Amino acid sequence: MDTAANSGHSTGSPLARGRHWLSRLSLRQVFVLVVAVGLLVPGVLFTLLMLDWRRDELTRQFRTEQERVLETLALGLRQPLWDLSLNAGQPLVDTAMKDPRIVSVRVDGSFPGEPFISIIVPERRQGRAMQLSRPVHFGDQIIGKVLIEFDDGDLRRRLAAQAREYVLLIGVELVVSLLLILLLLDSRFLGPLRRLIEQAKTLTDHEAVAAAPWVRDDEIGDLGRQLEWARSELHRLFGELNDKNDALELDIVERMQTEEALRASEAKYRELFLSNLDGICVTDMNGLVLDANPALLALLDVPAEALVGKQLVSFVAEAWRNYDDHMIQHRVLVDGHCGEYEIELYRPGDGLLPVSAKGVLMRDVDARPIGVWRILRDLTERKAAALRMELAAKVFDNTAEAIMVIAPDNHIASVNRAFTEMLGYATDEIVGQPSSVMRDATIDPEVYENINRQYINHGAWQGEVPFRRKSGETFTAWAQINVVRDVTGRIGDVVALIRDISDAKQAQERILHLARFDALTQLPNRAYFRELAEEAIAEAHRHHEHRALLFVDLDHFKTINDSLGHDVGDQLLKEVAGRLHDALRAGDVVGRLGGDEFVVLLRNLDEGEDASYVANRMLARLAQPFQLNEHELVVTPSLGISLYPVDGEDYDTLVRNADAAMYHAKENGRNTYRFYTADMNARALEILSVENQLRRALERDEFVLHYQPQVDMGSGRIVGVEALIRWRHPERGLVGPMQFIPIAEERGLIGAIGQWVLREACRQNQAWQAEGLPPIEVAVNLSAMQFYGRDLAQDITAILAETGLAPRWLALEVTESVIVQDVESTIATLAALKGMGLKLAIDDFGTGYSSLSYLKRFKVDKLKVDRSFVMDVPGDADDSAITRAIVNLARNLGLQVIAEGVETPEQWSFLKNEGCDEVQGYLISPPLPAEDLAKRLARGAWRLGSI
Ligand SMILES: Nc1nc2c(ncn2[C@@H]2O[C@H](COP(=O)(O)O[C@H]3[C@@H](O)[C@H](n4cnc5c(=O)[nH]c(N)nc54)O[C@@H]3COP(=O)(O)O)[C@@H](O)[C@H]2O)c(=O)[nH]1
Fold first, then answer.
1. What mean pLDDT do residues 841-860 have?
2. Architecture of domain 691-938
3. Tens of pLDDT, residues 456-495
4. CATH number of the domain at 276-383, please?
5. Which residues form the EAL domain (predicted)?
6. How high does pLDDT run on average in the chain?
7. 866 close to 887: Cβ distance less than 8 angstroms
8. Strand 129-138, strand 673-675: pairing
9. Which atom of ligand 1 is nearest to the CA of 708?
10. What's the gap in Å between 738 CA and the centre of ligand 1?
11. What's the CATH architecture for 399-507?
């Protein structure tokens, strides 16, 4: 708009533009402009008039001076011109030329031709030139003429200087006048005007203070006073207005707050109505439903239109309608409300719904009844909960587990029947008692306090608790304790489920015992012994002590087990376990690894060698015969000893090394002990390797029998041979029986090998006979395992039948140590074998177990004097005496006697003299392969003459 207006003005007439320009000037600018114009116009006019006057005056003065110069020359030149004296005229003219306004002077005579004098200075022409001339009279005669050319440049300059002076004068006057006028204007008019403006501005300013009073009596002073009056009036009015405004604002705010509170309250109640979990409806005084909340619609499972506008009574079950009506009519309408009462609502399509009902009378502002609030709460869940509570109470009372509720003050709040039965208290005896009443007084109270801390800190705890019954009897219970907290997390009751686990504990202990102890011997089993041993090793490690681990294996136990049955074997193991245990000091432990293997851990050894005392004690204890039912058994052990820490620092190493040492003991004749040495493991590995190879040797037919002749000392005839096994090892060549028979015995392989030997010996003997060689006995060595193992008689019968050898050509050699293992059983076996017609010999006779008392009962044919006695006869008196005694014994018992290991003629002679029947030894022949032996046989009688 302004822009348009401005542009309109700028494009209007100059007058309009001027007016507009003027309208935009301030009052001061207008005053300045008016005063300036008012002073300038007369000043300019005055200056122009003055200049005009001065020009006329100066021009006039210039003409006068021209006339005078011209006159002066015309007069001065009369004579010279008359005289034509240039010298006289020239100075006059030169003098005139000194006036700078004269450009030229020309003096003409009355004679023709050249001027009498002519002087011209052209450069003096700067303005307008004026030429004046005058005739020169000499008397009345004109004798010449003077012509002067004047320049008005000087006149003009003087006029211009005069004009500048006027302009300057007027300018100064104008400025001074303006300043004076402005000063006056400002002090008398503009200043007060500004004050009036400032005063006017304060009219609407409520905070403004009263202006200084106007002292002048002119119009401005009046205006100022009027303005001050108006200001104070306005101020007063504004004050009143503000007060009213404030009051109004307060009123509006209060009203808005009230309205807001009303709206919030209404929304709240509406929200309460809508979100209430209870069903709520509003009915008029006739029971017509005016409004219903979603909970009620959900309760009845109907849409709003099915309920609103309908009689609420139509949803009340028939049976409850009168009652409901009674409550509304006689309670709600009379008292204004009623307490909760139960009715049943009809739920379309879904039967009846138990609800609690409540009614509140609604009134209008004049307290006139206008309707009834109905509040209906679903009781389905509450009834179910009540049912559950009832059930829980029954469970609580009838459950087999004892339950105790402890109140926060640590007193027993309630117990169930099982509890009273378990603890022996009647309910009223125990309820109210402190929970500590059931503590076992022998238990450190800290145990119970710790349990209390556990369940309080963690909310629950379960575990074993020692309790005391009313009778004083203590028992172990399994308690599951749970802390019940209220919603704030505060500890409420503590519920404890208590189960008497005394029986289970005993069972557990039994199970633990079974898990730890060998059922047969009641010694720690392999696993538990390891535990104990590892503890003992750790303890030794801590205290820098020694320990010894003994590996005990019974010699030939398998034989006993197989021959006499497992019952006897079991009894023997029990007895052995007892004896081993008795041989130990307190703190030492013996365990059973399995079978006939026992391990012993010795503590508190001053030095490793101390273990040998225990080993010897064990050997001595076990050396005593065992009387098991009708059997008297002799069992020897082989013991291996490893020492902590020198032979191993952990249990497995110690056991492995003791085992290796035990094998070494077996290899060294059994019934002894060996300390572990580093090379034993290599030996153990070798044994393992031999065992594996032995298993394959039978399949690969790697065994062979050599036969050593047995010569009758009287005739020199070979009357028999001893079959001695060799192993044609694919790598080691021919391996002697001592290299593998003990291992075969130990590892249970001797049965199969022995069978093979028996069969092969019988077959070969039968073959020799079939070749027509003189018939001889073949003697076969029997191991204990063969002797006590399977039915030996039956096996031999089968072999004899198979090979066709007559029983009388087969002799069996059994060592003393074998037959004394179980005397009764041996007697029976020997009798059976004897009955078959076989020959029987006791090998190695005299080496230790000579049970002379039983010898008569043994049905043997021959005693074989051990090589250890023979080798030193006749030189050694003792051996000679023993040999002699054995020969005599045999003779007295009616038995034959054969001496083995005869290597020298002296031995031969001694034995011959003593009456020995037969001999066997390198003197006659080493064991020979079957074909070599056949050749010997073929050669007939032994040539004794050379001996
Ligand atoms: N259960 C089985 N045991 C067997 C069987 N074959 C052999 N053996 C037993 O092995 C032991 C060693 O036998 P071997 O190395 O064959 O030694 C026998 C003879 O070679 C040796 N002998 C014989 N005469 C002499 C002699 O003059 N000097 C001397 N230094 N040694 C000699 O004696 C061994 C025979 O002894 P024995 O049996 O006591 O008569 C040996 O104990 C065999 O019993 C087998 O098949 N089953």
1. 74
2. Alpha-Beta Barrel (3.20)
3. 999 999 999 999 999 999 999 999 999 998 878 888 899 9
4. 3.30.450.20
5. 687-941
6. 88
7. no
8. unpaired
9. 23
10. 8
11. 2-Layer Sandwich (3.30)
